[in-house]
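Journal club side-thread
Mid-discussion, someone asked how the predicted structure for our own chain would compare to the paper's figures. Pasting it here so we can look after the session.
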Amino acid sequence: MEEAAETASAREQTAGDRAEQYHPPTAVNTTQRLRELRDVMRRVNISAYIIPHTDAHLSEYISEMDARVAFISGFTGSSGTAVVTQSKAVLFTDSRYWIQATRQMYCIWDLVKSHSVQDISDWLRKEVSGGDRIGFSPFLFSFNTFKDYHNNLAPANLSLTPILDDLVEMDEIWRDRPSLSPEKLFRLPDEFIGRSWQSKVEEIRRQMRHDASKPTAVLLSALDETAWLFNLRGNDIPYSPLFFSYTLLSLDQIWLFVNISRVTNELKEYLNSSCTSSQCVQLFEYDSVGSKLPEYFNRTGVKVLVSTKYINKALYDLIPEGKLLTTDYSPVMKTKAVKNPREQEALRITHVKDAVAVIQLLVWLEKNVPKGTVTELTAANYIDQCRRQQEHNRGPSFKTTSASGPNSALPHYKPSNRTARTLTVNEIYFIDSGGQYLSGTTDITRTVHWGEPTQSQKKAYTQVLMAIINISRNNFSAGTNGKILTKAQEEQGPHAGRAGRGQHGTGTIRVVDLRVERQPCSDTPPTQTEENGLGVAMDKEARKYLRYQHGTGHGLGNYLVVHEAPVGFGSDNIPFQEGMFISIEPGYYKENDFGLRIEDIAVIVPTKNGSNNCLTFDIVTMVPYDRNLINESLLSTEQIEWLNKRYKKIRELIGPELKNRKDLKEEYQWMKNHTEPFHVDNVVRKEDRAFDSEFMDKLSNLFYAGDVLLRLENGDTVGPGSQRSKRYDVK
């Protein structure tokens, strides 16, 4: 052991020499923390330790007390895994955070530009000798995550060793670890409750009774599941009104594990916690979950349903194998995703309020940026200030991305006092922000340019806008998977339990500005194809795809999490249903130059004719796009008409909100100016453009894949069985 300690000391000295050579001014020196962690690793006889960015509930956004990756590495992104051996410290993260990681980590850390279990396992197999032990906290791994690691490491004779007492949390390492908030929990006011907790419980029990596997109970691990079920909220997680809790909902009992000292007498009465019948919520201390749950698991004839994406390995192992039922998403998660009419109306109203705040920001920026007095950070603070003026606002729904110039090429850049640039009229600026309101959660991104944008910037912006339009215009059958509607390719990270929460993966824009005829919706969900031409488009001149380093969309909660599972455009998201809310947010990023993104929130609604179980998207975000960045000549007549209808709706809904307030006359005029209808005459008609037959052959083959027909001006079609000529006049 002494020899091992000497070797480790020599390795640390080498790492220290590296650190003295260079480190970014924004980097955090964690040399001492790593040294102390390695000392503990030697004591417990592990050769490597895996530290994920999550908590015991597999949350995307975590409390300060759970920010282990940030503490040990300095990296504060919302997705990453740190791996520490006696000689190396490595961060694995996805493409959203590569540049941020290099700015925040001291040079004793290495960055691996991947976040897949496969790549982390490959690295461990190279660095750790066969027969050695790799430590992990079973409270921070979902069952799915553990299984994936085990399947990759076991063939190399590497043992995954659970460490029940997390090493980073030890007092000798994290001496000033933040403590749990003492704030009391609170219930949503009646006016914002779409369904009583009793009706929700009965609905979930109804689904359990009709489930072919016949579960007697469901164990809820994700924090937003319990918060939604009981219409309760808390302040344990930044930007999300959640509280640490578990719920065991059986057919005849309800067990809620929570810090009871934070439950007021009023809430105890609200939950009927003084009784033990089927409509009474029995309260148990949060920390007793591991000792109390086996009392139920050991009963005769019980079957417990768990979500393998959200239950941690420690709790999973408590359930006897013959009594365990598994699913990707619990019935609570699926039910929560579909908003009822009252919840839908609340979210629509919330987005109207939020639009007023965003328009206030855009007007303020337009006036003050030319003065040279606005930075990325002051702009981010100003949008929070505008939202606080709105009724029922409870703060931001996530930390604002406020980025200009080269910083805008970082999809999830967060400004600080050290990094914030001064905004100028000569650069692109985009802001991705959101608000929490008692009535709902919002998320919006707008990109602007106050000067003379380059032609490439206008082209990129217009193509991103065209992607928004084309996705939004899709008609699809109930039960369609979002993957079918876009070319977004989700890149699964090692903590797939959070799938649908964040912006994981790489999206692809193909901006179809050609008129297409889609096959009518039917009662049978469409068969998934790799490409089917829906809601996507290609840059015809370059014949390339525009790729962006984040997902195309995510679900949205009713005063819950801003990235709500399990709705999205990924293959692992649940099929679309009426009443779901989803973001649509393509983007484009050119490293060290500029980046841009547009994000709208839409609700899935029946098409106007309501035939054949057919659905579409209805955008509820009510802020106009930047006219200065739109190249109208790239838009089709249908896209122009879509924009004009959107702008008419914005005027109808936002106009009264602005006009009725004397202090917002300037904002009202700004809104009117920016929602002036576009003129169809400005569109370059496609019959003025000639397409070579080779390109049209490729385009036709693309449309074959999805049974989509392209209607030509002369009445011919490009598609299955269609004929082609050498010149195609397309309207």
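Post-session note: Residues 341-368 form the longest helix (28 residues).
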